[in-house]
Design a protein that fits this description.
Shape: elongated
Structural class: mainly alpha
Strand content: under 5%
Radius of gyration: 27 Å
Helix content: 10-25%
Number of strands: 2
Distance between the termini: 57 Å
Number of helices: 2
Length: 90
């Protein structure tokens, strides 16, 4: 049993230099299949991201608020500090 995915038919862009009018109909059409509302939402998000263009910077607030681990991380400690150093074994 195979799952049939919907085929998308792109809508052509208006000619360069012309004023784009609001769309009277749908922007894309599902040719086959029956996508769920979640699949349509994902498709809409992808299409909106693609049409945003490369000049738009992504929202990077997640990296600004990253939590740093403040406890001791033994897997990141080197095994040997040097021949003349003492280190307490934990």
């Amino acid at each position: 049993m195979s799952i049939q995915r919907p085929a998308l038919v792109p809508v052509p862009d208006p000619a360069p230099g012309s004023v784009a009018e609001p769309a009277a109909g749908p922007l894309f059409r599902i040719e086959r299949g029956c996508p769920s509302p979640e699949e349509l939402a994902a498709l809409t998000a992808v299409l909106m991201a693609v049409t945003a263009g490369p000049g738009v910077a992504p929202d990077d607030t997640a990296r600004k608020h990253q939590v740093v681990a403040l406890w001791r991380r033994p897997e990141r400690v080197t095994g040997f500090d040097g021949p003349r150093t003492w280190r307490a074994a934990a």
